[in-house]
From TrEMBL:
InterPro entries: Ig-like_dom, Ig-like_dom_sf, Ig-like_fold, Ig_V-set. Residues 127-210 form the Ig-like domain. Residues 1-19 form the signal peptide. The keyword DNA damage does not apply. The chain crosses the membrane at residues 227-248. Keywords: Membrane, Signal, Transmembrane, Transmembrane helix. This is Ig-like domain-containing protein.
Amino acid sequence: MFRYLRLVFFCVFLEGASGDAAEEKSVTEGELITLNTGVTEILNNDMILWMFGPEETRIAEIVNQKVNIYDNNGTFKDRLQMDSKTGTLTIRDIRTDHSGVYKLIIINSNALHKKFNVTVFAPLPVPSVSSRSCSSSGGSPGFSCSLLCSVDVNSVTLSWFRGDSLLSSIRVSELNSSIPLHLKQEDLKNSYSCVASNPAGSQTKHLNIRKLCPPCSDAVRVFSERLIPSLVYAVLGIISVSLLICYVKSFEK
């Protein structure tokens, strides 16, 4: 009972320190995150308390060297684990609704407290890159090509790289946002990639420039290879239908 009174008193005392900066943590949804206490060994009289959210709801504690996990509202659903020797808190299979401030209170010979601001990001997909155009350059051999890199998530940074050099970058706040890249004939010799990133990780799309941006002569050839057979089949179909109609009419006579 005395230990709980000490804990309540300490929590009230800490209200004046609520503005202390929190340690920032980022993680991808579905992964686990570990919040360290910095304690190497818990003694018999030590008390450790973890709280979560703006209401500072108690979620885990160690009292008398016994671990207690609390999840009365079902927010974590057996995802919480507390190390009995250090008080470190682990959240497995973390979800986006677990983002928020986690507050740690340690009562021993030195009363301490820490805060962690945890941000959980949705998993990043590999960016999608498409070719927007191909046109000859003033009638001379070569081409100009526009590429578009997009990703179907928000709160992400999209960046174009030539080799290891950053070319351009934008912060995406809406779904299906994109970033363009314009290439010329002399750019073919370089390698390019589009990177989607957030504080929790990144995904990279490496490009096959020759495939995405063939020289215009190649583009015309590819177009012809696809279009001409279709036209031939269409013409043959029309001829076949016409012959069938003529045959039917001649039979009726």
